[in-house]
Amino acid sequence: MRIDGRCHCGFIAYEAEIDPEKVMICHCTDCQTLSGSAFRTTALTREGGFRLLSGALKTYVKVAQSGAKRLQGFCPECGSPICATSEGNDPKVYSIRIGTARQRDDLIPKAQIWCRSAQPWVTGLSSIRQLEME
Fold first, then answer.
1. DSSP string across the chain
2. For 23-49, what is the mean pLDDT?
């Protein structure tokens, strides 16, 4: 599936080829901290399936407890997280932050990972009072 998206301010624009079966929610504590939320929702690209159309990403290297390094790409102007990938110059698989994708309504998660780190209240969201804001 071809998707396209941008950061909040529009400095970064991208397109990607993703597998809609590989849209997932990650509950790990790194994703909670890096997203500023209780979890992060991502879509994986095919190898070499991500292309910047405008702007240049700023990157932060996150080192996991295992020692694995992941480049976290975000807009240098507004800070919107865009994607993550491995280090090096080989063709990469990118983990796109689906909140930045124009097609986000169609990107339904198929799996959840690191569930042992999930905030206990996320399974009961439908029971929390909903307010429409104007």
1. -EEEEE-SSSS-EEEEEEEEEEEEEE--HHHHHHHTSS-EEEEEEEEEEEEEEES--EEEEEE-TTS-EEEEEE-TTT--EEEEEESSSS----EEEGGGBTTGGG----EEE-GGGS-GGGGGGGGS------
2. 90
